[in-house]
Structure formats: C-alpha cells, structure tokens
Write a structure and sequence with these properties.
heterodimer; A: alpha+beta; 5-stranded antiparallel β-sheet; 4 helices; B: alpha/beta; 5-stranded mixed β-sheet; 5 helices; globular
C-alpha cells in the first residue's frame, strides 16, 4: 500500500510501515514561517483526523493537533519538518497536513486582497 | 529569543480593567505608548490593526491565554508587553474560556523572523502549567517581571 500524498513539490520522501504509521518530510513554504495563523490552521486540520499526528523538527517532536505546540517549533520558511501519523486514517491525515504545511497558506491571498 | 528581548517591563499590567477584547488591547497599547515604545499618534491605528488581525481568527489560543499582535510600520523593532486580567476577558478563544493572560506584540513588517522567535518563546514557556498558574496569580507588575526573568533563566522549562 502506498499513499499518494505527493501532490505538492514540498512533500517528499514518503515512506510506509506496516502498522498504519505514515511518515514524510515537508518544507515550510510560507515566507513568514509557521506563525500563529498557519499553526492554527494546521492544528485545526489535524484535529479532524482520528490518527495521532506528530511534527518533528530536529530533536523536537510536537503534537500537530496543538497550536501552542506547533508554535514552539519556530519553524521559519525553508525549514524541513518530518511528519508522522499513526492510526486508521493516517494516510489521508499525513497527506493533507503535509500539503497544508508545504503551502503558502493565506498570507499572499490576504495581501493581494488588501491591494 | 527571551522575554527580556521584546517585553517592555514598564508596560506590564497586572490588573487589566477591561472586560472586552478591544478594551484589553487598548490598555496594553496605551501602556506601550506611556513607556515610550509606541508613538501616541499611532496607538489608534495599532489597536485597529490588532483587531483586524483578530477578525481572521482569535489569538486566544486556549487555556486562558491570548497573543494579540500585528505588524505595524511605525515600530522599528519588535516590542511587546504582558497583561493579566483577574476577571478574565471574552476573547472568542478556541476553547471558549475567558482570557486572563495577554502577550501583546507589535512588530515591524520586515522582521517576520523576530515575530516567529517571540512566538516560539512565548508558546514554549506557556506550555508549562506552573508558569501560567503563577502568572495568573501575579498581583503586581513586579511579580510578572520576576516570573518572566525566571522563565528567561529556564526555571520553568526543563
């Protein structure tokens, strides 16, 4: 079985293990990093899944369902994060969370709206 | 980044009187004006910018904590302050709980890295239940400053 999660170029190195644990790496593309609004969006999305979802940066691993925890990563643009999802919907969870983290979120959209 | 790098100690308030979102934000911004960190002529603009950011989604992140913030061209460096409300303020928080702890940030538009590092520090410290508990129990600005200094010395986060 294999997840088709690589819809975004930032999502890479997909791996699969036997017990519904999915892992991948993703690069933060938002120019301002995972600040409060992106962190909130990630946590809100992550909470819609039954699977546990973790975000790893270096030696630090946090719960993707906690906005406060995501903020502790201080993940700036260009930071490579490893994602791990474990549970019945791990495949979909890691796909969608990785896609969101690798996106530019809404900063550009909002800026364009102001102009 | 540590609290002492961006928190204006002279603008800390331990007894916010406002019971609504705009009032609490205005009290903290006014404190930054009095402390000389913000131009008084810009205070209304800054309050409105913070409220506009709140419209995108409350910065009340649960557990009685809010981090209202904005980027504003009138400041040359990241500045912030801390406020405690004993009665709590309705902030439309994610968990619906009133907010007692406020960390307000105003940053220059061209320094997103500083803003991110300030958020990193605030969130890391606020994960510690004792730190939150002590802040909420603080009765003077001096108490709050002491707690921030202790946090800077890693006395709350292992």
């Amino acid at each position: 079985m294999r997840c088709d999660a690589s819809r975004d170029n930032a999502v890479a190195a997909f791996t699969m293990s036997a017990n519904d644990r999915q892992s991948c790496s993703v690069t933060v593309n938002n120019e301002h990093g995972l600040h409060m609004r992106p962190a909130s969006m990630v946590a809100t999305l992550a909470r819609t899944f039954k699977s546990s979802i973790e975000i790893e940066k270096g030696l630090t691993t946090v719960d993707a369902k906690s906005e406060l925890s995501i903020l502790t990563l201080g993940a700036a643009v260009g930071t490579v994060l490893n994602l791990h999802a474990t549970g019945p919907d791990a495949c979909k969870a890691i796909s969608e969370v990785a896609e969101l983290i690798g996106s530019r979120f809404t900063d550009e959209v909002l800026r364009n709206e102001k102009q | 980044m540590k609290f002492c790098d961006f928190v204006t100690y002279d603008a800390i308030q331990s007894d916010l009187s406002a019971s609504d979102k705009e009032g609490a934000i205005r009290e903290l911004v006014d404190n930054l004006v009095k402390a000389g960190k913000i131009n008084g002529d810009e205070s209304d603009s800054i309050v409105q910018a913070i409220l506009k950011r709140e419209e995108l989604g409350s910065t009340g992140i649960g557990r009685g904590i809010a981090v209202p913030h904005t980027k504003h061209p009138s400041v040359e460096q990241l500045t912030g302050t801390v406020g405690v409300s004993q009665g709590g303020v309705d902030f439309q928080s994610l968990d619906g709980e009133p907010v007692q702890l406020f960390f307000l940030l105003v940053s220059p538009p061209d320094r997103p890295g500083d803003h991110l590092r300030a958020l990193e520090n605030i969130s890391r410290q606020l994960r510690d239940d004792m730190f939150c508990k002590f802040l909420k129990a603080a009765r003077t600005a001096g108490d709050i400053q002491t707690l921030l200094e202790e946090a800077d010395n890693n006395q709350f986060v292992s």
